[in-house]
Give the backbone structure.
Amino acid sequence: MKGLDTNVLVRFLVDAEGDPEQHAIAADYIQSHCSVEEPCYVSGIVLCELAWVLQRAYKIPKIEIADQIAALLEAQQLVVADRDLSRRALADFRESSADFPDHLIAWLGHAAGADETATFDKKAGKQPLFHYIGGESR
C-alpha cells in the first residue's frame, strides 16, 4: 500500500490551473497507484491539513471543502483512517462554524473514551463534544 501526503491531494484537487505540471504529476500518481485492488492510504492528519490548506491558502468555500472530503471518504481507491469517525466529523463540520479538524479531534477523543475535549476555541467550544475553558461564557 502507498500513502498520500496532503500536498499530493492538494495538487490533485485544486492545482489544475495554478500549477498544471504538479497537478498532472499528482493525477498520474493517483491514477496509476491508487486502485480498488490496491488502494492508497490517507491519514486523518492529511484530511485535517487538507481542510486547512483549502480554506486558508485557497479560500475555498466551506461547502466545497466538505464536498471534497466527502468524495475522498467515498473513494474506493483510498483507505481513509478512521473513515466512520471522519464521516461524523464531516457531518458536524457541515452544520457548525467550527473547523473540520476540530470535529475530527473531538470524535477521535470520543472514540478513545473522552467524554469531552477541552478547548480555547470559541467556535469549537459551542459544539457538543467540546468544553470551552476560556473563562468567558459561551
Summary: The radius of gyration is 16 Å.
